[in-house]
Amino acid sequence: MAKKEMEVMKDVDLERYMGRWYEIASFPSRFQPKNGANTRATYTLRDERTVNVLNETWVDGRRSFIEGTAFKANPDSNEAKLKVKFYVPPFLPIIPIVGDYWILYLDHDYHHALIGQPSRNYLWILCRENHLDEEIYNELVKKAKEQGYDVSKLRRTTHTDPPEGDEGPKDTKGIWWIKSIFGK
């Protein structure tokens, strides 16, 4: 059975979307450590077409991060289809990795969002806070299922009290990235 075409948000105000978002749940991926906690993304508008992306997670008390950029897939479209680009490995950024970042749902207050991409291999539930009301979470899971996602793969992200800024010991060697390749 063919999956229906995914619906994405339209006319998203990128300036309003900027700031910190906490990962509430996601599909496991080889790009993120399995035991990462307090995972979050911070978006900063670089110019009218480019967004700086900072993805962070804590593994065994150490802050791991990767920085990249995002841009509209089609600058002339009003659809919230972005491309994200990271260079790997983070300690020697030579290989560009480009992926899709589609905003499938965003509430009116820009408080919580459902992010996916066309292959349906990746899915994120994000929130401005590190917790989300269970009823809203279930609504987002339902929306993902309606978009053709296998929501049984969703895993909740553990959140404690991470530092507000970028404090904390850093994994400066990119070891988390190497481990993630091997599924650790």
UniProtKB/TrEMBL annotation:
Pfam families: Lipocalin_2
Family: Belongs to the calycin superfamily. Lipocalin family.
CDD domains: lipocalin_Blc-like
Ranges for domain Lipocalin/cytosolic fatty-acid binding: 12-158
Superkingdom of the source species: Eukaryota
Xref: InterPro entries: Calycin, Lipocalin_ApoD, Lipocalin_bac, Lipocalin_Blc-like_dom, Lipocalin_CS, Lipocln_cytosolic_FA-bd_dom
Biased composition range(s): Basic and acidic residues: 158-172
Name of the gene this protein is made from: LOC111493718
Protein name per UniProt: Temperature-induced lipocalin-1-like
GO biological process terms, semicolon-separated: lipid metabolic process; response to reactive oxygen species
GO CC annotations on file: cytoplasm
PROSITE patterns reported in the protein's UniProt record: LIPOCALIN
Ranges where the record places region Disordered: 152-172
